[in-house]
Amino acid sequence: MIRFDHVHKQFPDGTTAVDDFSLVVPSHEVAVLLGSSGCGKTTLMRMVNRMVDPTSGSVWIDDDNVADLDPVPLRRRIGYVMQNAGLLPHRTIADNIATVPLLEGVDKKTARQKADELLQLVGMSTSTADRYPSQLSGGQRQRVGVARALAADPNILLMDEPFGAVDPLVRRDLQSWLLEIQAHLAKTILFVTHDVDEAFLLGDQVLVLREGAEIAQQGTPDEILDHPADDFVRTFVGIDLPSRRRRR
Amino acid sequence: MRFFLAALEFIADPANWAGPTGIGARLLEHLLYSGLALVLAALIAIPLGLYVGHTGRGRELAVGVSGALRAMPSLGLLTFLAVSMGFGLRLSIIPSTIVLAILAIPPLLANTYAGVEAIDETVVDGARSTGFSEGQIVGQVELPLAAPMIVGGLRSATLQVIATATVSAYLGLGGFGRYILDGLPIRNYALMLAGSLLVMALALVADGLLALLQRAVTTRGVRAATGQSLGPDRGRPREQRATSASTTGAQP
Amino acid sequence: MNWLSSNLDQVLRLTLNHLAMAIPPIVISLLLSIPLGWVAHRNRVARQLLLTGSGILYALPSLPLFVLLPIIIATKILDPLNVVVALSLYGLALMVRTATEAFDSVSAEVRDSATALGHSMGQRFWRVDLPLAGPPLLAGLRVVSASTLSLVSVGALVGVPSLGYFFTDGYTRSFLLEIGVGIIGTVLLAVIFDVAIQLGGRLFMPWLRATDTRRARR
Question: How many Cβ pairs within 8 Å bridge chains A and B?
């Protein structure tokens, strides 16, 4: 379980990114933060693994206030997937996937085994293990990014626009693939996106955010589509769009 | 042409290679002065550059100090230190090493922090969010990725130091500069030319060897990313290349 | 300070000597590097030749070059022309590389849109490529200026008079003040040149003032 308790974030330059935000993400569920860029959704997510510390308020993982935890081990037990995968260009795919086990001092052989397993889990051939990130396609790199996040067998996955940089067809593939693996991995996932379709496809609950990470509406995809809270939500999720009507 | 042949004859004569004032000894002296200064400069500049690049702190200061050091005339600094240190006139290697190190610091420092800064920010961010400690980020991510540029800085520094070590002979030290300064008063142009050719050869050989080192420290993954282009720019991101002039400097 | 006031004439004369040997290389290397850099930027073969050539030239130490040149261009060893030619070659080696990379750094989109708007090749060079290559050229020129002013003094070792004379003379007499005057004089010239080049840059590239903000990192 992830819990945000009245968090607030003001950056040194004076801008307020997050203003009094609270949320509970129950274990094994996918919560999607949906909003346009600059609304503070990434800042919120980065508070969970202490890449950002809130100015006030607290973030809890189960019964632990993350502020009381050492950030480095904390990050190692939380999977993090980012838009451009953020792989290390000078390390092989296998070493990238086994990043956390290697940091924890696991021997090379065990790490390699783990990497091979994960490659298969994310639907890639183990023949890519010795290649470098620059030799893979964007979609493949994102799969490797997910594999790396899963390597420490974390309970929590943070996904920051993980499919934002790949082309639409591949994005579809990756989305349904994520649903598939989530069906049996059952991680607690916090997912950030500005893509409305993606949010409604993946989220158990979706939070539509305004600027300052203010929650415009929170609910299941059906609740939001059936009863948009206001005009902002209606416009943002495009309920009046023909494509949206067709989709339902 | 006459002098050229005489100089080449001088270099080719095995008799001139042996003994305490032979070419072999002068070569070792030249390498010693240069090596000492480069090691000293690297010990100061590389950690400092990593710090500046990693934290982004002290950048303006580093730029300012490097600029100021570059404007310093080496010959002036050399004579000033030798005279003012008192013992500097007898232990000339101390002022010489200091001046040569001062010369080597700006390119090493600038290339180190520029190399770290040139790393794609998402790579560092990804490493941090995966659970690398700050020390691990510096040692396992920034240092290897900046290595080609750091060696690039070492190349410019080495060229300048080998060149300027010639001037150290003015303080009575050895090295190839001896031939140039000893030949001058007796108008032995062949000797001066021989010394000049030897310094140039040493500079070119050292630069070639460091070019190979630069190739070696460019990891396969990065090489795959930057394509198969050959040449001294290998491993340097494009936006850095345009500013390469700022990483080089004076060399007597 | 007595020494300074009684030797003011000499300081002035040597400063002028210094300038006379420093200015031509700085100007020559800028003026020649622009066409050479442009050619290297446009043509693969020229690029290989020019960049390899300047790389080797740059690796040559200057004191030996001062000795070598009289033999090649048949001047006397004490002729200031040796210093001027050597330092011009040097400045050029640095500037050709800088200019090539400066032209490379002009974004292809900007260049494309300039062509699409109907600039001829010449117009594009003067109105688009050269101005946009300006900032890195300026940065390179600042390095050339500082290194040239510093290197001129090395000529004193082979007897060519400049502010470097104070270094050799002060050293033989163990006279710190004299060496100090030489250092301060050289640094002062370097600072004046640097400021002048930057002012020149602002004059020719007024848009730089608007974009001269350092990117904030982390």
Answer: 79
CATH number for the segment(s) A1-77+156-165+188-248: 3.40.50.300
Question: Could you state, in order of their start, the residue ranges of all structural domains in chain B?
Answer: 2-247
**Residues linked to residue A218 through DSSP beta bridges, in sequence order:** A207
Q: For residue A25, what is the enclosing H or E element?
A: strand A16-25
Integer Cα distance of B110 and C150 in angstroms: 20
Taking the C-alpha atoms of residue C218 and residue B115, their distance in angstroms, rounded to an integer, is 16
Enumerate the domain spans of chain A: 1-77+156-165+188-248, 83-154
Regarding the domain with residue range B2-247, which homologous superfamily does it belong to in the CATH classification?
Answer: MetI-like (1.10.3720.10)
Map out the domains of chain C with their CATH numbers.
Answer: 2-211 (1.10.3720.10)
Provide the ipTM.
0.82
Q: Interface partners of A (3+ CB pairs, < 8 Å)?
A: B
Residues in chain C with CB shorter than 8 Å from the CB of B76 are 153, 164, 166-167, 179, 182-183, 186
Rounded to an integer, what distance in angstroms lies between the CA atom of residue C141 and that of residue B158? Answer: 22
Which residues of chain B are within 8 Å of residue A69 when distances are taken between CB atoms?
none
Cα(B208)–Cα(C125) distance, integer angstroms: 35
- Nearest C-alpha of chain C: how many angstroms from B196? 4
pLDDT in tens, chain C (218 residues): 678 888 888 888 999 999 999 999 999 999 999 999 989 988 889 888 888 888 778 767 777 777 778 777 777 777 888 888 888 988 998 899 889 888 888 888 888 888 888 788 788 888 888 888 888 888 889 888 988 998 899 888 888 889 999 999 988 888 888 999 999 999 999 999 999 998 888 888 777 665 544 443 33
- Global pTM reads 0.82
Tell me if B196 and C175 make a contact (CB, 8 A cut-off): no
A contacts of B126 (beta carbons < 8 Å): 80, 82, 85-88
Return all residues near A67 (Cβ < 8 A) that are at least 6 apart.
A50, A53, A58, A59
